[in-house]
């Protein structure tokens, strides 16, 4: 009876952990050119529950994944080497209740065209049996005819978020200027921007900031929140 009760509690705990985690976006499209050195796709993982969640991750690539392509995954603990498809059992990740953090998928096409997909699944165990949630790349298309890379414009985001020292902008082709405001609307910093550039905010106090992204005509493209910790 005691063993049955323990097993039941484990099942309930796993279900609760899965229910309280969410990716934003839930599915990602990656497009780029074979000559792109690296394609970075961040996705925000949020724990909406009342309990901390410990997890491990594993990548599964479809049969069409070109052998020349390389992947790299960065979790909360470590940026793993190229083509490491699962996290170390000795380095579990923990996302606290109410916290949002970024997982990153890096793709290096190495001059090779192709179409494929992969899934990044989070598990509650080191044997990768109890799945919590999956981040899907619905489409990975690398072609010389592709003009943009990364996320779609509607998924324009600032990452890593939260951050401690710097931030970048996903799908930033149209972004030319960035202004950082504090919570009362006072301008704190401004940056000229080119695609892929990182912006240092190490000197700012910890807290919540508003990031406004501007195009070349000085028009606001989007306003986003950034947490500095």
Would you kindly provide a written description of the structure presented here, covering whatever features stand out?
By secondary structure, the protein is mostly beta strands. It folds into 2 domains: 23-142, Immunoglobulin-like, CATH 2.60.40; 156-228, Immunoglobulin-like (Sandwich). The chain has 1 helix and 16 strands. The protein has one helix spanning 2-20, and strands at residues 21-24, 27-32, 39-47, 53-61, 70-74, 93-95, 100-108, 114-123, 131-142, 157-159, 166-170, 177-181, 187-192, 199-200, 207-214, 220-228. The strands form 4 sheets. It has a 5-stranded mixed β-sheet. A 4-stranded antiparallel β-sheet has the order 1-3-7-5. A hairpin with a 5-residue loop joins strand 12 (177-181) and strand 13 (187-192). The longest helix is centred in the N-terminal third of the chain and has 19 residues, at 2-20. The N and C termini lie far apart (46 Å).
Short description:
Helices cover 8% and strands 46% of the residues. With 229 residues, it is mainly β. Residues 1-17 and 146-154 have low confidence and may be disordered.
Secondary structure elements and pairings:
Layout: H1 2-20, E1 21-24, E2 27-32, E3 39-47, E4 53-61, E5 70-74, E6 93-95, E7 100-108, E8 114-123, E9 131-142, E10 157-159, E11 166-170, E12 177-181, E13 187-192, E14 199-200, E15 207-214, E16 220-228
Parallel strand pairs: 2-9
Antiparallel strand pairs: 1-3, 3-7, 4-6, 4-8, 5-7, 8-9, 10-11, 11-14, 12-13, 12-15, 15-16
